[in-house]
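Here is the promised in-class demo. Please do not try to memorize the tokens; focus on the logic of going from shape to residues.
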């Protein structure tokens, strides 16, 4: 398993994108609904998504893994195809944190 990405929620997409660009990330693409993907070299990418002010922001790590999940892992949501071309699921660790698993190709 490797860290594929950081999924970050924000209340201001523009400010968040500028922050990461100031750190040397380049905008790979932006959507028409206040989100986008930023890269810095060949390492993990950052996907930033704007959420409403009424909702708290969060952050999740996306871990690249195989398509098989051990039976003793709590599955929050099973593998599903995403609208952006990946296959992802969410699991919960023993301390209650949620992790996004992205199936390797």
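The designed amino acids, position by position:
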């Amino acid at each position: 398993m490797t860290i594929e990405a950081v999924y970050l929620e924000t209340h201001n997409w523009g400010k968040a994108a500028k922050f990461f660009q100031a750190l040397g990330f380049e905008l790979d693409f932006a959507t028409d609904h206040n989100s986008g993907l930023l890269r810095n070299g060949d390492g993990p990418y950052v996907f930033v998504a704007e959420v409403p002010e009424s909702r708290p922001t969060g952050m999740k790590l996306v871990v690249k893994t195989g398509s098989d999940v051990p039976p003793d892992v709590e599955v929050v949501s099973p593998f599903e195809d995403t609208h952006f071309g990946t296959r992802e699921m969410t699991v919960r660790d023993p301390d209650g944190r949620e992790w996004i698993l992205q199936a390797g190709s």
